[in-house]
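Data deposition worksheet. Section B asks for the primary sequence of the deposited chain exactly as it was used as input, without tags or linkers unless they were present during the calculation. Section C holds the resulting structure in token form. Section D is free text for depositor observations; keep each observation to a single sentence. Incomplete worksheets are returned to the depositor.
Section A, Depositor: J.P.
Section B:
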Amino acid sequence: MKIILLVLITVFSCQVHAYCFESAGEYYGVNPQLLKAIAIVESDLDSSAINKDENSLGLMQIHPWWFSKLLKFEITPDSLISDPCVNVNVGAWILAGNFNTHGKNWNSIGAYNAGFSKEKHVQNNRNIYIIKVKRALSRLKSNDGN
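Section C:
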């Protein structure tokens, strides 16, 4: 009985995540597969992931830098962990903001993780992140047969 419950929870969780990526992508004008690829790179699709070094939270690993900005929308660190759809929507909002300010390009995607600084180490981190997201996106597309 416990095994069946665990399987049902896992299947339901995957369906919820898929819906979250689709709805957030549609709302913010961001490719849902790109959002999922970022979540794979950030948390390996673990909605309860917490980065102990930076205190980043959830599927999209929302960095604490955003917490004060999110409070005006009544989004708390707890809600970022307890509600995967809130987390994905915040990630989509952040990425859409990057696209709005710096264009829809790989640099904006890399900045999701490393920021837009022109410092060499930040540029290197951004480029490494871009490679990781491209790989995850490619795997998603090949799994979908696209």
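Section D:
The CA atoms of residues 114 and 124 lie 9 Å apart.
The helical segments are 2-28, 32-43, 67-71, 77-82, 84-102, 106-114, 120-144.
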